[in-house]
Amino acid sequence: MTETVPEALSALPDRPAPALPVSGGRRIRLQYSLTLSFFVLMALYSGVLGVLLPNQIAEFDPANKAGNLALLFAVTSVFSTLTTPIAGALSDRTHTRWGRRSPWILAGALIGSLALFGVSLMTSFASVLVLWVMAAVAYNSMQPAMTTIIADRFPEQTRGVVSGFVGAGMTAGLTAGTVVAGYLAGERVMAYGLFALAIAACCITFVVINREPPVPRTAPETFRLGVFLKSFWIDPRQHPDFAWAFAGRFTIYMGYQAIATYLLYILQDYIGLGVARANTAIAELALITFGCLVVSSVASGFLSDRLQRRKPFVFVASLIMGVAMVVPLILPDMSGMQIYAALIGLGYGSFMSIDMALMTQVLPKTEAGDEGKNLGILTTAINIPQILSPVMAAVLLNLSGNNYAVLFVAAIIFVFGSSLCVLPIRSVK
């Protein structure tokens, strides 16, 4: 049985957590099943956040759809930002016969899927908001545990390949989710149910076939709330590489989210497509992105490990993403969006695959075995933009009279800025 939160917190390790390396067939199985799990999770996020929720919200109040979507993203992301590092820290301190991470993966998937399916049955914006926040909290409790498995169970020198496969799965999932949701947008209950069932089944299977060894208890220390909360502050003066990695991730997602959040509305109000055509167009663009990002993710991960370099790949990926966002300003039609889709696939695929490996290598060297907590903090560099970017976008649209070109300009500034943040990192080549 999984321990209660106070029991888990009381077992604070006084030395680094034991390594749980895998090899041979078990390692290959773990790598591919982890890739599949992230594929399904990202498909869920992209399909729900990029297509299903925007359509549902627009039906409730077409005149205020952009503002309501921004509010949903902001509220959800506040909870997600708080949940991710706390869940990561708690998973570091969880001791069960099923290991540290597995209970969080299983519980998060099941609770999240129940709440997600409930969203499909709601008939008001307020009820959708409440249930989606519940689902997001559950999924964000699961995600840091899954991410930390890379640091737990794969040697550092192989993480580029592993991250490349996982990154390919994530980016392919973003595309697949958009395609599926785009074509099933008219069958809301079926679409939500498909995503909810897929992530639940995938995570149950993952936990069963990749049995995590039990983590032995260490001598417990007295739990102090102040000490626990203080541990979430990582001094950028003592850990500058961690701070720069956080800043780079934060800025690139500020730019990326500004476009991804409103892509359906961009196709409708900037490109000029009807509602039905916009839903199929977003699926078509996702297919273009798919081919580019899969090749980019796997190739970047392989080359990064072969050359033992991370920074150049992240730097170039940021530049490619910035160029992608320039194209719709020059060609505000479907041709421009198709070029955007191809370039964003190349850049984002490379960025996601190498960024994950980079993150595991800039973690502070502590004695507490806090990998889950620290990776959770780095994940907030994605969650915080989900709060700020849609709000920023809504304000810019309001001030500019719904001129979506302004969003592309803001996104370009942030994404190009991200490329500069990787240069000062010293501990990773």
Count of alpha/pi helices: 15
Q: Give me the CATH superfamily.
A: MFS general substrate transporter like domains
Strand content: under 5%
User: Could you give the order of the helices and strands?
Assistant: HHHHHHHHHHHHHHH
Instruction: Provide the CATH top-level class.
Output: Mainly Alpha
Structural class, judged by helices and strands?
A: mainly alpha
> Largest sheet, described in full?
none
Number of domains: 1
Name the shape in a single word.
globular
CATH topology: Growth Hormone, Chain: A
Radius of gyration: 21 Å
CATH-derived architecture: Up-down Bundle
Subunit organisation of the chains: single chain
Number of strands: 0
Percentage of helical residues?
over 70%
Please give the alpha-carbon distance between the first and last residues. Answer: 43 Å
Q: Averaged pLDDT, please?
A: 78
Residue stretches low in confidence (pLDDT < 50, at least 5 long) are 1-19
Written description of the protein model:
This is MFS transporter. This protein has 429 residues and is mostly helical. It has one domain (23-215, 237-421): MFS general substrate transporter like domains (Growth Hormone, Chain: A, Up-down Bundle), CATH 1.20.1250. Helix content is 76%, strand content 0%. The longest helix is centred in the N-terminal third of the chain and has 37 residues, at 24-60. It starts with a helix and ends in an 8-residue tail after the last helix. The relative contact order is 0.16.
